[in-house]
Amino acid sequence: MDTIDGTDSMTIGEAAERSGNAASALRYYEQQGLIHASRSSGGQRRFERDVLRRLAFIGAAQRVGLELGEIRAALEQLPDSRTPTRRDWAKLSTAWRPRLDEEIAYLTRLRNQLTECIGCGCLSLKTCALYNPDDEAAERGEGPRFLLDDRSKRAN
Known about the structure:
Elements: E1 2-4, E2 7-10, H1 12-19, H2 23-31, E3 38-39, E4 45-48, H3 51-64, H4 68-76, H5 86-95, H6 97-113, H7 145-148
Antiparallel strand pairs: 1-2, 2-4, 3-4
C-alpha cells in the first residue's frame, strides 16, 4: 500500500481484493454514498484502511437482507459518517432482530413444507384439494400465502 498525504491507502484493486468485493461493487457503493474514496493527483481512487470495516458492515447487513437504501440510512446515523464501531454495530444490529426473526420463521416454514407444497397458488393450479380447496389462498393475496401468513385457513 502506498502513502498519500502521509496515510496508508489502498487502490481500488487492493481494497476489492482485501474486502472480497468486486471493484465494480466498490465504485457502485461509492456512487451510492456508502463508502468514500479520495483521489490521487492522477485521479486514481484511494481508499483508507477503515473502508474495510465499512465494507464488512455493508456485507453483513446485506446478508441480513437489508437493501442498500436501508444500509445507507443505518450508516447515516453515525456521527460524521465514520466507520461503525462495535457499539454502533450492536445498536444497529439490535434494530434488525425482528427482521431476522421473521426471515428465520419464513425459512423454517419453507423447510418444513418444502416436500408438501410451495405454499400456494399450487404452482399455477387453480385448486388443491389437500391444502387449498376452492383456491382460498387467493383471497389472502399474491405469492406463497401459506409460507407468508399463518396457517389458520389451511386444512390440516
